[in-house]
Amino acid sequence: MRFCQLIDLLQKSYEMEVLKTPVFSEEFKQIQVLTDASRQCEAHTLYFCKDMKQIQLVNSPIMIFVTKTPSSVPDSAFMVIIKEKDFANILSLSRHYLMEDLKAESDLYQFAEAALNGESIPKLINTAAGILGNALILSDANLNIIAHATNFEIMDPLWAENLERRYCTDEFKKKVLENEQMANWSKKDDDAIIIQLEGDPQPKLVSRVVENGRLVGGITMIEHHTPLQHFHFKLLHRVGVILFKKLEDNLYKGGQNSLPSTILYNLLDSSEFGDGAPLPTFDFPQTMQAIVARFLHPISNRHIKRTVTMELEQIFPKGYSIQYKGYIGIVVESISDSQKQKLRNLSHYREVSFGISWPFHHIGDFKRHFNQCIQAIKYAEVLETPDRILEYTDFAYYHLLHSYSGNLSLDHFCHPVLNTLKAYDRVNNSDLYHTLYTYLLCDKNLRQTAANLFIHKNSLTYRLNRIKELTGLDFNHSATIFALIDSFRIQIYLDSIFSNSSP
């Protein structure tokens, strides 16, 4: 702990006279009370002494609190005069602050070690939030949200809206820039400062991160769950520096800087781990699903790719991410409805499509299920599917058709009813073909089918009766229904191939 910081803390409650202001770098790691007639002073030690008349200072400089002004003060001593009645309280409080500081140093060491061991930024920021006891938000120099802690609820409604958008509005940025504390904040000052905008329900502790004289971003702690402590000011800046260093490293390493990510990358990139081959030891979940993201438009900016990766990790904090060629993937245990909605929001904000695989139980099957996601994305593009959350279940049949290598043409497997309805529609300018397809998609629900076709229920009943008259179909025969659904899928697939091959 720095001696000057301790003095600042103590001066809030006690009167004292600083005979010589300590330099900023002077730190202490232990506290001792001087009582001997002579003492060999130790480095990084803060001393307390009631009477220095009989004390001989050796190995100066030292940091010391005394109750009586000595006849002479060594030039190398950083000395503070306190009242004798406050001696015990100041000694006790100093020890308390030192213990808090040492614990914070230990927590920071473990945090840095986790970063070096390949922990993802969403997991790291949750770890840091746990250490500091409050929600944390990491943002770039333009106040775009990079990551935020999910283990503490954001109670500030304005910041909650910012997190939902993933960026801060121009109005919010203007309020920040016009804030008096921000305007008076020295660009060279590494310490965190308290900033509270007009209308803020809680103060915010903010620290900027500067690299090579350039502002790269900042980290914000919202004081809500834990009151501000002195060690918050010290730790927040260091946490921010580590997180931005981690972010920079990830940009150059492509995210493959952890054991699970390395395993996933190797599974995709080589045949080193074939069926039955031993895999490196790592406990993946018993049941898994793969999610793969692909940008709608080519992206070469590595920062954007890493940001999307982190946003995926934010949605699935227990997942294992991977960047492979033009794709971003993550292995998760399961996907909840709320997570699927967050994926949908992210898909529109970042202009990406997400493929979702079938569940699997052995990590050796990851490559096959990663490819399921890719196939879902590709067939959705071919079929011009508007949705961006693409489950392989909805495209598995098209994958099967594409893999078909038999001698018979696929249209041989289409039910003849389809051609009958097409021919009738052409001659009569009707829409029976589309009506039947929609009716089957809606699981033969009359109300839903009519709503999807934007027609009255009675009109739908008329059309279905006309289809029965023309084709003799029995809508209660399950095998017929399955054959019709398969036929429509085959026809959609063949139409898409014809459309893409046409000049």
Give a verbal description of the structure:
Pfam families: HTH_30. It comes from Anoxynatronum buryatiense. Residues 432-484 form the PucR C-terminal helix-turn-helix domain. InterPro entries: CdaR-like_regulators, PucR_C-HTH_dom, PucR_C-HTH_sf. This is PucR C-terminal helix-turn-helix domain-containing protein. This protein has 503 residues and is an alpha/beta fold. It has four domains: 3-99, Udp-n-acetylmuramoylalanyl-d-glutamate--2,6- Diaminopimelate Ligase, Chain: A, domain 1, CATH 3.40.1390; 117-253, GAF domain (Beta-Lactamase, 2-Layer Sandwich), CATH 3.30.450.40; 259-275 and 283-392, Reverse transcriptase/Diguanylate cyclase domain (Alpha-Beta Plaits, 2-Layer Sandwich); 410-501, Arc Repressor Mutant, subunit A (Orthogonal Bundle), CATH 1.10.10. 45% of the residues lie in helices and 17% in strands. The chain has 17 helices and 17 strands. It has helices spanning 3-10, 87-116, 121-132, 157-165, 170-177, 180-183, 230-253, 259-269, 302-315, 337-350, 366-382, 396-403, 417-428, 432-441, 446-453, 457-471, 478-501; strands at 16-18, 30-33, 38-40, 45-49, 56-58, 63-66, 78-82, 135-140, 145-148, 193-195, 204-211, 214-222, 289-295, 320-324, 327-332, 352-356, 389-391. The strands form four sheets. The protein has a five-stranded mixed sheet with strand order 1-7-6-4-2, with helices on one face. Strands 9-8-12-11-10 form a five-stranded antiparallel sheet. The chain has a five-stranded mixed sheet with strand order 14-15-13-16-17, sandwiched between helices. A hairpin with an 8-residue loop joins strand 10 and strand 11 (204-211). The longest helix has 30 residues, at 87-116. The protein is elongated. The N and C termini lie far apart (74 Å). Mean pLDDT is 86; it is low at 272-277.
